[in-house]
Amino acid sequence: MEKQEENIKNQAEVKEKTSLRKTPFQGLGSLFSYGWITKNIPFFLFLALLAVIYIANGHLADKTIRDINRTAREVKELQYEYKTLKSEVMFRSREAELVKAAEPLGLKLSSEPPMRITMEKRDKE
Questions:
Q1: Percent of the chain surpassing pLDDT 90
Q2: Is it the case that residue 43 has pLDDT exceeding 80?
Q3: Beta strand ranges found along 1-125 (DSSP E)
Q4: Residue 64 three-state SS
Q5: How many CB atoms lie within 10 A of CB 19?
Q6: Which of 66, 67, 107, 117 could cross-link with 102 by S-S, CB 3.0 to 4.6 Å?
Q7: C-alpha distance from residue 22 to each of 17, 25, 26 (Å)
Q8: Helix-helix angle 41-92:95-102, to 10 degrees
Q9: What is the largest CA-CA distance in the chain?
Q10: Strand, helix or coil for residue 1
């Protein structure tokens, strides 16, 4: 009886060896088993968190770049406005322009030099 059992075991081993040739993907069935997946859930959650942070960082960077570009455009516009106003003020502050602006008010340019007023020192009484 023992010999029959041995023969049956040997036949089963031979069938197993010949029918199950090792393939490169043979071990993947046990690698992605339910136990392995449940054991690695914290790692999968960590990877998902990293993906969310990566995406959020990309959106934040895009928003920051848009804000920087908008601010740069505003600064350029304000520089142009400043230069325009400065040149206008410089033009209006010329003597000829001041005379033209003062004529409707009845003010005229004096041909006499300004008088100098001096104070005499008083002695204490």
A1: 42
A2: yes
A3: none
A4: helix
A5: 7
A6: 107
A7: 9, 8, 6
A8: 70
A9: 152
A10: coil
